[in-house]
């Protein structure tokens, strides 16, 4: 298996623009997670899905953030409009039982 | 809410020596999992080792082992025979074990991390 796939790996955008991050989980995994990593706050969970259904979105910072999982093999995290404080590394992870396997992350820079 | 604390922002070790990274956590749950993840400069998060709270035996994976003290809520990572490739950020993480219907959660709660430098 190729592991968790994220795209793009790097994204540079201007404030106010819409940003869409994409994730393909490991085949057969029934949980999908979105995390954000910043120097100030460390690694924090934004939202997670079980069998494509959002279970906990309490970490989503505000209404500018939205996440979807239309099927078992694809998820998106959208920021609209983006702000400089959204600059961070965004990780997608998937799991089937105990361990979560992480993708390579997307480094987002909002100018 | 559960919290994870890593009190050592940075550590260094000589190649071939042994180093121990500290982690403490706070929870009211009796059943849970603890993990150590490694994040090298490539930023890929790599699982190093896992410990189930109900197991008294400390987990071991090759040169990596843990000292799990449930009563003290302590979960340290020992790296033996350190290698240059061990240089990375190390994160301790907590996850509930109970089912979501029983109040559990699948989310990982991370510590702030410890930056490990390995000197040749």
Top keywords for this entry?
A: 111 residues, mainly beta, seven-stranded mixed beta sheet, four-stranded antiparallel beta sheet, B: 120 residues, 12 strands, globular
Describe the SSE topology.
The complex is a heterodimer of chains A (111) and B (120).
Chain A: E1 5-7, E2 10-13, E3 19-24, E4 31-38, E5 42-50, E6 53-56, E7 65-71, E8 74-79, E9 88-95, E10 100-102, E11 106-110
Parallel strand pairs in A: 2-11
Antiparallel strand pairs in A: 1-3, 3-8, 4-5, 4-9, 5-6, 7-8, 9-10, 9-11
Chain B: E1 3-5, E2 10-14, E3 19-21, E4 24-26, E5 32-39, E6 46-52, E7 60-61, E8 64-69, E9 74-79, E10 88-96, E11 109-110, E12 114-119
How would you describe the shape of chain A?
globular
**Helix/strand/pairing category of chain B:** mainly beta
| Termini gap of chain B | 41 Å
Output the helix-strand order of chain B.
EEEEEEEEEEEE
Q: Mind summarizing the main beta sheet of chain B? A: 6 strands, mixed
Mean pLDDT of chain B: 93
Number of helices of chain B: 0
> What is the overall silhouette of chain B?
globular
* Arithmetic mean of pLDDT of chain A: 94
Compute the number of strand runs of chain B. Answer: 12
| Global structural class of chain A | mainly beta
Number of H- or I-type helical stretches of chain A: 0
Beta strand % of chain B: over 45%
Gyration radius of chain A (Cα, Å) is 13 Å
Largest interface: A-B, 24 and 22 residues
Strand element count of chain A: 11
């Amino acid at each position: 298996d190729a592991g968790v796939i994220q795209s793009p790996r790097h994204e540079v955008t201007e404030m106010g623009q819409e940003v869409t991050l994409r994730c393909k989980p490991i085949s057969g995994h029934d949980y999908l997670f979105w995390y954000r990593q910043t120097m100030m706050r460390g690694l924090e969970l934004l939202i997670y899905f079980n069998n494509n259904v959002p279970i906990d979105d309490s970490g989503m910072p505000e209404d500018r953030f939205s996440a979807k999982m239309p099927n078992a093999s694809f998820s998106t995290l959208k920021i609209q409009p983006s702000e400089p404080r959204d600059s961070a590394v965004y990780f997608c992870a998937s799991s089937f039982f105990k361990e979560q396997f992480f993708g390579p992350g997307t480094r987002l820079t909002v100018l | 809410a559960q919290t994870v604390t890593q009190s050592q922002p940075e550590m260094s070790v000589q190649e071939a020596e042994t180093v121990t990274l500290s982690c403490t956590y706070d929870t009211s749950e009796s059943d849970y999992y603890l993990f150590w993840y490694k994040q090298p400069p490539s930023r890929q998060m790599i699982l190093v080792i896992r410990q189930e709270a109900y197991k008294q035996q400390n987990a071991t994976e090759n040169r990596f082992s843990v000292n799990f003290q449930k009563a003290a809520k302590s979960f340290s990572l020992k790296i033996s025979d350190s290698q240059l490739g061990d240089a990375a950020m190390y994160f301790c993480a907590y996850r509930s074990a109970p089912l979501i219907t029983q109040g559990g959660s699948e989310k990982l709660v991370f510590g702030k991390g410890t930056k490990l430098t390995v000197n040749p």
